[in-house]
Design brief:
This protein is an alpha+beta fold. It is 21% helix and 31% strand. It is built from 5 helices and 13 strands. A hairpin with a 5-residue loop joins β1 and β2. α2 packs across α4. It is globular.
């Protein structure tokens, strides 16, 4: 396993983020699209940077024959080799290619608090109140497992009135720019330099994989994404 960190607040003068991987190196990366690129206040947006949290580095899902044919067409068009990419699955008890960004919007005061873990929402709302669960398409079995796990980000119940806002994010990847130097990031962690990606990829493939708890997946590493303006390096 290789352990990496990415602080969305650690933005260099050249507007790059630093992916720090123990035993491998420090790499220039970016996350997010257009004006949302590397914007630490925009990870709730559809094309914003990757939200804070812990992500398992796993093999990229391939899908069925239709997905494979679509991938080949995209490879011909972009020059990418998608088989080299890794997927990033958030450690949010769902452990899949989607995650939910949760906000508590306080009624009448124009203020929102970000809840880093969906469990903060699910623990607060009892299982018999199904509105949130139906919206997230969560089964009764997932519901029981999620409610069982309390979140350290849960802020309690003795506070002013609020409502929940939810934003689904998905398909986070670890990948380089295209061979011609172009490319985008819809929340992926994207390397500016292909040689950097190749170096980390080799190190990940050589590392001992670890089984992801609660799933059949095996991870090459972990990336902890933070939103901490006080981190010092």
């Amino acid at each position: 396993m290789i352990y990496c960190t990415l602080n969305l607040r650690e933005i260099s003068q050249d507007n790059t983020l630093k992916l720090r991987c123990a035993g491998s190196g420090v790499y220039d990366v970016f996350s997010g699209l257009g004006h949302l690129k590397n914007n630490p206040d925009a990870y709730m947006e559809k094309n914003g940077p990757i939200p804070p949290g812990k992500y398992w580095i796993v093999d990229r899902p391939t899908g069925g024959i239709g997905s494979i044919l679509k991938q080949k067409e995209k490879e011909w068009r972009t020059g990418n080799n998608y088989d080299e990419w890794f997927a990033l699955f958030k450690n949010d008890s769902l452990i899949n290619d989607k995650t939910i960004v949760v906000f508590k919007s306080y009624i009448g005061v124009g203020q929102s608090d970000y809840l880093n873990d969906i469990r903060a929402l699910l623990v607060h709302e009892p299982p018999e109140q199904d509105s949130v669960y139906k919206k997230l398409n969560i089964s009764v079995y997932q519901k029981r497992a999620l409610v069982k796990n309390a979140s350290e980000n849960f802020s309690g119940i003795n506070e002013r009135p609020f409502t929940y806002n939810l934003q689904e994010r998905s398909s986070f990847r670890l990948h380089p720019l295209r061979p011609d130097g172009t490319g985008v990031s819809d929340g992926c962690i994207t390397f500016y330099h292909r040689e950097d990606f190749n170096k980390l990829r080799r190190d990940l493939l050589r590392a001992n994989k670890q089984k992801v708890p609660g799933s059949q997946l095996e991870a090459y590493g972990i990336i902890t994404v933070s939103d901490n303006r006080y981190d010092k390096y």
